[in-house]
């Protein structure tokens, strides 16, 4: 059966229904490509008697996009074949839009990537407004660009700047009304039955339809790159992009920018050729392989169950208790209530609890004032949060999250109190440093699991679940289901010092301090990190978490006392009173009024005796610095695997990107090892080199040296 159904009505309107047999979604696979060819041939053959064409779908999504199973395999030697494929698809879509017959797309569900590209080849688009109907080009988030005409058409329809900033460069997914406002769709309906009616009405009214950009004298909104208005603005685009990427070398945004600008300087068909070449470059490169692996395959596996213990029935949280309404508790209450779950937010006084609830009010008020929510929705959400000081109100909760001060005795007390008040609830803790096994024993609980949120709670997508020695599989599964219920992504980690994320994060920031000790200027260290793709440099991050934190951990016997970075922190804190951002000075001077990272040109390294400027521009040292930040995280992750702290590469990859800022272009910290030049063996050789030069902390463990090399990758070694 063909994935494109052909239904010709008596009046000459053909409805093409995208409906891949034996599949839940339509993708641009070989069967679809063949069907597209046949369908277009038939349209051409019958065009004299056709009145119009409607493209719609029988699936929940309109069309899912490229076949990522195939795209992740693309290597430089497949370039020509890939070019032939996209050229072919583009030629077919171009034939449809130049047939001389009006073509309408009736978008019944998500049209992302290839789905939107098909829709853009129609002359008219009507979309059904449902929460699931999202339109956009998420390709950039997978290291790709829309290569089936998406760049060429969106730029011509929306104008260069709008297309780049609103759809192409950030992978935004728009609801139907927003897409209409932008000009991506013409009409929006709320009743599914109206979709085809609208499409037919439009065909009746527009027998002569063509694409606007095929009309004589068409002017691209905002002008062409040679028009004075845009020409003056063009040189700023690459600079803006670099600023947005903070200097990171991610190929996709750069290629999108080039394809968009160059495509506007030529005719449509030549623009397709240019777009195709940039697409093939990206698709056959390592970065897209890494990003597809992480953001499609690994993330989907986690969100579909991942490290959740199987065979435990699904859990649907209904009433969640949150102990402590401080920074974390307030955020946890908000994200939980936002998911439609009732929340009991408990603190030492009603005032303190109300203060935590006010955090939700503040966020919601802002959303209402910006038109992104309604007063009714705000009030309903606030109505789900009960602010209280009475533990008895926890009665009836099925899940409790403790988020009081990081104080062992206090935690023991409130955990036991909650267990007594809500006997049917699973009790969990958001502790960031205390061992779960000890907390469970100290509080005398039958079960306990760590639910480690990241700050700010409403923005950070990751939750690290901590499994203690006496945590049951049921508890892990329930915590997993809670995490998914609030729309966040869980990774599962064994109880140990620093768990996974804080432990690996710690090695990276301390490496930054070690580089300072060796005389590399702070600015160069930050630049090295940003160019590697970290969202922030190690010294900025140390300033944010405070320089006193690693010192405290070291004093408690946690950090390696001999770490060369410790001496630098001690000097800065003890001799110069530079403790970090909150105090206005750490590695850098901070202006308290600036909430966002001000950029290197604006923060000056302190003039501290003993922090020699060093040979900052030595390219070898710069490359070493970059590698050291990446390698120290990867080697420490391998140790986590060896110790059983981590068990899945998916958790390592996604946890490292979403929790601690590992550069996304490498696809995560485990993928970094597997994709290194020369494979795991190449990684081990370079790590050994770093160990010989800079210290044993870089020495790769046996898991990498033996098992992973033998298996061909860390992923295979752990499978
Ligand atoms: P916070 O100091 O902002 O809030 C703690 C709250 O607990 C205060 O409102 C306090 O009044 C309340 N509290 C104290 N005794 C209580 C009791 N008997 N019953 C109910 N509430 C009580 O602290 P924050 O930053 O929210 O941290 C809370 C927990 O989350 C800590 O365990 C921390 O380690 C952990 N955590 C913190 C992260 C962060 O970035 N701040 C990240 C992840 C976890």
Automatic annotation (TrEMBL):
Domain 3-hydroxyacyl-CoA dehydrogenase NAD binding: 319-495
CDD domains: crotonase-like
Protein name as it appears in the record: 3-hydroxyacyl-CoA dehydrogenase / enoyl-CoA hydratase / 3-hydroxybutyryl-CoA epimerase
Keywords: Fatty acid metabolism, Lipid degradation, Lipid metabolism, Lyase, Multifunctional enzyme, NAD, Oxidoreductase
UniProt domain 3-hydroxyacyl-CoA dehydrogenase C-terminal: residue ranges: 498-590
PANTHER family: TRIFUNCTIONAL ENZYME SUBUNIT ALPHA (PTHR43612), TRIFUNCTIONAL ENZYME SUBUNIT ALPHA, MITOCHONDRIAL (PTHR43612:SF3)
Top-level taxon in the UniProt lineage: Bacteria
Pathway(s) of this molecule: Lipid metabolism; fatty acid beta-oxidation; Lipid metabolism; butanoate metabolism
Single GO BP term: fatty acid beta-oxidation
Family in the record: In the central section; belongs to the 3-hydroxyacyl-CoA dehydrogenase family.
GO molecular function, one term: enoyl-CoA hydratase activity
Catalytic activity: a (3S)-3-hydroxyacyl-CoA + NAD(+) = a 3-oxoacyl-CoA + NADH + H(+)
